[in-house]
Amino acid sequence: MRVYGDEDVARWLSPAMQRVEDLPQMRRLLAEWDRQAEELVPPAGRWAVERTSDGRVVGGIALMVIPPWEQDLEFAWQLAPDARGQGYAVEAAGVLARWAFGHPGTDEIFAVVHATNQGGTALARRLGLEWVGETERYYDRTLQVYRLRSADLDA
Q1: 36 vs 118: CA distance, rounded Å
Q2: Domains and CATH numbers, the chain
Q3: Lower CB density within 10 Å: C or N end of the chain?
Q4: Please, which pLDDT band fits residue 46 given cuts at 50, 70 and 90?
């Protein structure tokens, strides 16, 4: 709830995801994600970002296929406001990217970020994703597109 219930986090979520209003809704969403996990083909998936020092869940990270054609893999990350700026997203995304690139056919991962989402843009750059342009291809809105290739990770 500290993540998906926060208005500042929710305003940057994909159109398919809305702010979670209460604990019962969060439980239903987690149950739906658990059900969907059985249908996802790795490396697609969703994971909690857990702080190792105390086991507190500070966010979530996902690799999901992007609508409408479901051909490209998209990084998605969300952190609780009090967990930002501490390197959790960078560390989690680096681990996830290395794991994803170990799967056959995974050559690139994208992040699509609203132009006014300065935090998302900055994080994409810190992760080593390269800006490749703007598109309206995903989610029927103009978004900045960043790409990470396996060779970029090695560099």
Answers
A1: 30
A2: 42-154 (3.40.630.30)
A3: C
A4: very high
